[in-house]
Amino acid sequence: AQSVSQHNHHVILSEAASLELGCNYSYGGTVNLFWYVQYPGQHLQLLLKYFSGDPLVKGIKGFEAEFIKSKFSFNLRKPSVQWSDTAEYFCAVKRASKIIFGSGTRLSIRP
Amino acid sequence: DGGITQSPKYLFRKEGQNVTLSCEQNLNHDAMYWYRQDPGQGLRLIYYSQIVNDFQKGDIAEGYSVSREKKESFPLTVTSAQKNPTAFYLCASTLTGQQSYNEQFFGPGTRLTVL
């Protein structure tokens, strides 16, 4: 079945640690890729998106993601996390008119 | 301010009752979506609509119904046939066509609890 996989369900890091959250998808052909973030008590909001061009995309708050087509992956990275990055992160794939989300990764940052 | 509104924020329902969740957007977006968010399962697509008077089932449409009589409105009815309706429901919208790579914008959500 077509799907979006986020293998890390809960990640716990200390402040200033580097972050990488995995995202793999199983769709072939052209896709648009997104990372969304949901801070506690807030709306889902877009972190970054990829639709064409440079496979390394930069988003808000120092986040970036790399699209590796051969690996069907779109991993999210941040070189140095802050306590305020505590949130749930969702990878999403747009294929035709549907947008399919991964199960999410909860990120907890120790002060 | 442009955006998506969902009402009510919290909703309680007795078993066996139908309930309708409201979603309105003033972004002039063509497409609208309903998702259900459960812990550890992410967002699952219930229904979506690309244009007025047309909608398609998502991955978990059973026990739900929708209508799209106006561009700005996409109400979701949770029927008594939905076996596990307690969840957080999110509405989203997006442009289509040449702007199809644009992201979805989300509402604040409605938390439904069945008593």
Write up what this structure looks like.
The complex is a heterodimer of chains A (111) and B (115). Chain A is 0% helix and 53% strand. Chain A is mainly beta. In chain A, the strands form 3 sheets. In chain A, strands 2, 5, 6, 10, 11 and 12 form a 6-stranded mixed sheet that branches. In chain A, a hairpin with a 5-residue loop joins strand 7 and strand 8 (64-68). Chain B is mainly β. Helices cover 0% and strands 50% of the residues of chain B. Chain B is built from no helices and 11 strands. Chain B has strands at 4-7, 10-13, 19-25, 31-38, 42-51, 54-57, 64-66, 76-78, 87-94, 105-106, 110-114. In chain B, the strands form 2 sheets. In chain B, strands 2, 4, 5, 6, 9, 10 and 11 form a 7-stranded mixed sheet that branches. Chain B is globular, with a radius of gyration of 13 Å. The model of chain B has no long low-confidence stretch (mean pLDDT 91). The interface between A and B is medium-sized, with 22 and 26 residues.
Name the chain pair whose interface involves the most residues: A-B, 22 and 26 residues
Shape of chain A: globular
Order of helices and strands of chain A: EEEEEEEEEEEE
Work out the strand percent of chain B. over 45%
Which spans of chain B have pLDDT < 50 for at least 5 consecutive residues? none
Q: What share of the residues of chain B lie within helices? A: under 10%
Mean pLDDT of chain B: 91
Q: Write down the overall mean pLDDT of chain A.
A: 92
N-end to C-end Cα span of chain A: 40 Å
Rounded to the nearest angstrom, the distance between the terminal CA atoms of chain B is 35 Å
Q: Biggest sheet of chain B, in brief?
A: 7 strands, mixed
> In terms of per-residue confidence, which ranges of chain A show pLDDT below 50 for 5 or more consecutive residues?
none
Supply Rg of chain B: 13 Å
Largest sheet of chain A: 6 strands, mixed
The fraction of residues in strands of chain A falls at over 45%
Overall structural class of chain B, as computed from helix and strand content, comes to mainly beta
| Oligomeric state, counting identical vs distinct chains | heterodimer
* Number of β-strand runs of chain B: 11
Shape of chain B: globular
Over all CA atoms, what is the radius of gyration of chain A? 13 Å
The secondary structure category of chain A is: mainly beta
